[in-house]
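Support reply, case 0932

Customer input (verbatim):
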Amino acid sequence: PHAEIWIAGMNAGEARTLLAGVPGLRIFSGYENAVGLIASAKVAVVPIRAASGSRFKILEAWAAGVPVLSTTIGAEGLVAEHGRNIVIADDPEPFAQAVSRLLSDDELRTRMGAAGRSIFEAEYTWERGWTHLNRILTL
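Our regenerated output:
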């Protein structure tokens, strides 16, 4: 109940009208450094229920060493392993419980953040991308 909720995104400003007056809510839109903003959070919550394309929100959180809570669809296509480098919950009650657990368990948060950073460095840096691409091109 005392958590501060941050909503960030290119068009997050549109949420200001819809969510005006919600206590503990901060909305960030048009910021320069997404990873810097995410790095100052305790948990990155990525509740994607329908999507396609890249999961940059999760990659940015992993780059920042911030633990991630998402849905199965939200983590689709990533080297994401529930309980190791990400927490996955698809239904509202388990999702809310996972947010509370991550916010209240410093050890879990630290472990999950470090594991996310590790998988980011192993799989998602520019260097690793070029390595993967070169391997494909030389087949």
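We compared this against your earlier run and they match. Two observations from our side: The chain has a mean pLDDT of 90. The chain has six helices and five strands. Please reopen the case if you see a mismatch on your end.
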